[in-house]
Prior knowledge:
Radius of gyration: 31 Å
Largest sheet: 8 strands, antiparallel
Strand content: over 45%
Helix content: under 10%
CATH class of the largest domain: Mainly Beta
Number of helices: 1
Number of strands: 31
Shape: elongated
Amino acid sequence: xxxxALARVRxxxxxxxxxxxxxxxxxxxxxxxxxxxxxxxxxxxxxxxxYYEGSWTALPDFATLAPVxxxxxxxxxxxxxSHGASNFGLxxxxxxxxxxxxxxxxxxxxxxxxxxxxxxxxxxxxDGVRSGALEKGGSIGLAAGMHRIMVAYFNATPPPAxxxxxxxxxxxxxxxxxxxxxxxxxxxxxxxxxxxxxxxGGETYRLGDTMLVRWTFTNGISRMVRIGLSLNNGISYSxxxxxxxxxxxxxxxxxxxYVIPDDTSLITxxxxxxxxxxxxxxxxxxxxAKFSIGPPSAAIRGASRTDESSFLILNGKKIExxxxxxxxxxxxxxxxxxxxxxKMLLTPDISPGLITWKIPAMASGVYFAVGRINGRSExxxxxxxxxx
Length: 388
């Protein structure tokens, strides 16, 4: 299924990019010696934190203390949280996105004490009071996926300082701060819902047509989606309309105008569309019923055609534009366009059917014959020789 393929794609991206990253971690086979990813529900970017006040010389057991406040933040940056000049503590919790198997080293540079946990394992112990910031590190092998992360910190002597970094020798990644885009917390808002508006069943398209894909979101202000096309009535969604880039939606209404390629493998009486939330593959919508994709309505033919994409025209010979099967009820027209973009209208709009034009005397060269039938068009490359 398209959603399953999407989950596999997510696991191939680079580690810890700043910005929006996929958040649904599929627990896959784990290489020997690597910590497996943690199962997750729906996630959103950022961390949860609890803020404490008190005077300590070492990190206390914060689980036995009542926090002064609890909230969310984007990263481990102390400037995001209102705190005192000293005598306070913080516990950050969430998930970190690891998208490549490897050995990772984490660092805590802090004044005063700090500890970093992956899952239940203490990776960095940088506890204690000191006269300035001090950095310590620790390593762990991690499999691709989401891993629980916790950082506990306190400050007793101003000014407070905290920097959480990582490096990965397996991929030549030098030490750098953990980006906000790699940090996630459990989703607590209303679950977004996708509603597919069109195509939603019963429509008829032809190769070369523009298919207007329309959908809406509820409980989501700006979302990214991937859009798949099924040619077998929803058994699989093998054609990805958005390719490698996700389609970004900036409001509750989404739209993609997709030009169906001139590819006969796409012809089917049983097409469906699937729209999948880029962040959470379990949020998706599919066409309520099948629609069809047929052959193109317009066909251009020449007097001595050499292949499917070009043909040779001798001045005084003829070029034809026709409507297959006489199914179109629209109007038809034909142009010749030079390589320099000069355009010659051979005929104004006329009734559909088999239409034949005699090529006027004109310079030899390569041109494009552009036929338009009822708003659909087809282009063929032609060569004109100035002889009879």
